[in-house]
Amino acid sequence: MDADSIRAAYRRYAGFYDRVFGVLLASGRHAAVEWLNRRGGLRILEVGVGTGLSLSDYRKDNRVVGIDLSTDMLKVAQDRVARERLDHVEGLLEMDAGKLAFADGSFDVVVAMYVMTVVPDPQGTMAELERVCKPGGDIVIVNHFAAPRPGVRRAVEGWLSPLSKKLGWRPDFTLDSMMAGSRLAIESIRTLPPFGLFSLLHCRRGQGA
């Protein structure tokens, strides 16, 4: 995976993303935002905001900044914010998740939904999410992680792996590879519909980190 192939994939998806993937991936998106909405007064960074499907669901007493690598997806999100008058959205920026242009500790919470299988450097991206999160803050990941044991699902993931560039994501992506070298503490992980193909992962940055 590289930035150009990611942009190309999501240029193709932008026009129909909401109608297809918006429905297929709704359960993970709702689960993450429901978790985040337990508290107000937060500054939240949504990494890979895409077309902004989740933006209207955030509590209005939270401020949300969204970033994405795809200009085409961001254009849809910007139109959504204007149309729905989402005043709690602080900004939508074109940015590489592996090179965030924010100061250390800028956000109370960082959320990345269906992103980590896409980015060129997952470990570097996780380090950036940790860096811009305040000490003691939360990082919430919704993602597909490869099956931990041999079986039909792992075989299918391996078969799809060579198609990663065309798909725009890595079917054989593992939790261990994403967390390699990370100092984040895993607080919880639970599987999500449909069929347990996706997981909601909650990590916390240490107070002294």
Can you give a write-up of this model?
This protein has 209 residues and is of the alpha/beta class. It has one domain (3-204): Rossmann fold (3-Layer(aba) Sandwich), CATH 3.40.50.150. It contains 8 helices and 7 strands. The chain has helices at 3-13, 17-24, 26-36, 71-84, 122-132, 152-160, 164-167, 175-179, and strands spanning 43-47, 63-68, 89-94, 107-113, 133-143, 185-192, 198-204. The chain has a 7-stranded mixed β-sheet with strand order 3-2-1-4-5-7-6. It is globular, with a radius of gyration of 16 Å. Residues 152-169 have low confidence and may be disordered. InterPro entries: Methyltransf_11, SAM-dependent_MTases_sf, Thiol_S-MT. It comes from Azospirillum picis. Keywords: Methyltransferase, Transferase.
Question: What's the arrangement of secondary structure elements?
Answer:
Layout: H1 3-13, H2 17-24, H3 26-36, E1 43-47, E2 63-68, H4 71-84, E3 89-94, E4 107-113, H5 122-132, E5 133-143, H6 152-160, H7 164-167, H8 175-179, E6 185-192, E7 198-204
Parallel strand pairs: 1-2, 1-4, 2-3, 4-5
Antiparallel strand pairs: 5-7, 6-7
